């Protein structure tokens, strides 16, 4: 008899798995996109290092703002150069965006605010003292922690690292995931159909896509028939090469559901749980073998996809040392939604962001078995009903998982 555990308990078991010390590798900045940074990044200088002009204009002394007298232009100060001449009362230096402010100056009067008369300027519109000067450390100060260890590298991190002259960055090595789909009725892409009961396998590729999006390296092992020896061999190969091995199909109660037998009896893996009170995905099996995680997902396309999101993605985040979490937010539901069964239920819905709130509806969503993957197309989310939740009434706030924000 199978011992079904709650969704919360199953998550807790996976969260508590001890993982080995992560390895770190160096990568060139832009190649490191999506990887998790392995050390705090601390500024080794102020930015800017010196007072810098934020506009094209004339560097002056503020006292001259209140004088009716013309101010003499004594020099030109293009960005990238350092002028020797100094600003004093009655004289100015033409200075450009990105140029250092010349010695003696404390204000930048923009070109638009002056009239040039031969080699002099007349101020026609005043600015406050200190105008348009980027102060030392405006962007960041020396010794500031700019990027924290555990951050996922995105465009802004690339830019900040570049401004620190860091070309190679230490990142945590991403986990490797081996994926296979089991079933004598499923065909890989391009395989010729030889009888009416055969269907195309989507699971192995849906899960590859999810894992790659989460930054894992994927070993695609394809399709294997419902045969104990083939499944054993495949799982052994996966365990040799990957940190996580994922299968789909063959975990429920049918005569040909061999995946569970292989994991339990052939591999002698430590079963963490087999059966969770979730819908879809009740037959899910998680096991450990030689510190590798095996997740055997149900065969139905919607079930395996939802369970890969709920179980595989958080484990990838954990192995790659990322602090990211599944994107769960509150949303307003547009219809009554009774609680059907005492399980944690994940139902596909449409989500829109309207006037600062997420709102969900079920327009066009099909009802039927856990085979319906098309319910995840367009603007999808999953409504989450906890196993102890009440019937939901239209207009109430509910928990949803935003599928298009999965990373
Ligand atoms: N008597 C019972 N029958 C079933 C139960 C049960 O409790 N008692 N549970 C049902 C539920 S819930 C699920 S979920 C499935 C899970 O079964 P398996 O994990 O053993 O999966 P399969 O039987 O191999 O396949 C189920 C279904 O999905 C199709 N499939 C399989 N692989 C793929 C693939 N790679 N891509 C797309 N579709 C796939 C397969 O053809 C089946 O239709 O068991 C229920 N039965
Ligand atoms: O548990 Mo099954 O995955 O509901 O369809």
Description of the structure:
- Pathway: Cofactor biosynthesis; molybdopterin biosynthesis.
- GO terms for molecular function: metal ion binding; molybdopterin molybdotransferase activity.
- This is Molybdopterin molybdenumtransferase.
- Keywords: Magnesium, Membrane, Metal-binding, Molybdenum, Molybdenum cofactor biosynthesis, Transferase, Transmembrane, Transmembrane helix.
- It holds the Pfam family MoCF_biosynth.
- With 407 residues, the protein is α/β, with parallel strands linked by helices.
- It folds into four domains: 7-21 and 174-319, Molybdenum Cofactor Biosythetic Enzyme, Chain A; 24-43 and 148-172, Molybdopterin biosynthesis moea protein, domain 2, CATH 3.90.105; 52-134, Molybdopterin biosynthesis moea protein, domain 3 (Molybdopterin biosynthesis moeA protein, domain 3); 328-405, Beta-clip.
- Helices cover 17% and strands 30% of the residues.
- It is built from six helices and 26 strands.
- The chain has helices at residues 7-15, 155-163, 203-213, 228-241, 259-266, 301-319, and strands at residues 24-28, 41-42, 52-53, 57-60, 71-77, 91-95, 107-110, 114-117, 120-123, 133-134, 145-147, 168-172, 176-182, 186-187, 199-200, 217-224, 244-248, 270-274, 278-279, 285-289, 292-297, 328-333, 344-354, 357-361, 380-385, 397-402.
- A six-stranded mixed β-sheet has the order 7-4-6-5-9-8, with no helix packed on it.
- Strand 20 and strand 21 (292-297) form a beta hairpin.
- Helix 3 runs parallel beside helix 6 (301-319).
- The longest helix is centred in the C-terminal third of the chain and has 19 residues, at 301-319.
- It starts with 6 loop residues before the first helix and ends in a 5-residue tail after the last strand.
- The model has no long low-confidence stretch (mean pLDDT 95).
- Molybdate ion binds at residues 279-283, 298, 300, 303, 370.
